[in-house]
Amino acid sequence: MLHRRLARDYETRPASSVAWIHGSMTDVMLRRLTRTTTATWRDPPDQRPAPSKEQERR
């Protein structure tokens, strides 16, 4: 989830909440219009480092 901050409303001013929602929805709309994907936080399977022997024993 890219906009995790929106999961809870900690803002005291309603205008701040509205601004965060507008910014997030702008990002979502642009990604849909351009059909681009977001970078993942995970490494692709072929680029992950091999587990060490210490980790294999566990």
What features would you describe in this structure?
The chain is an all-alpha fold and 58 residues long. It has 2 helices and no strands. The model has no long low-confidence stretch (mean pLDDT 75).
SSE order and pairing:
Elements: H1 14-34, H2 53-57
Shape call: elongated
Number of strands: 0
N-to-C SSE series? HH
Structural class: mainly alpha
Low-confidence stretches: none
Strand content: under 5%
- Largest sheet geometry: none
The percent range for helix content is 40-55%
Number of separate helices: 2
Overall pLDDT level: 75
Question: Compute the gyration radius: what is it?
Answer: 19 Å
Distance, first to last CA? 31 Å
Entry summary:
Helix content is 45%, strand content 0%. The protein has 58 residues and is mainly alpha-helical.
Task: List the main descriptive attributes of the protein structure presented here.
58 residues, mainly alpha, 2 helices, elongated
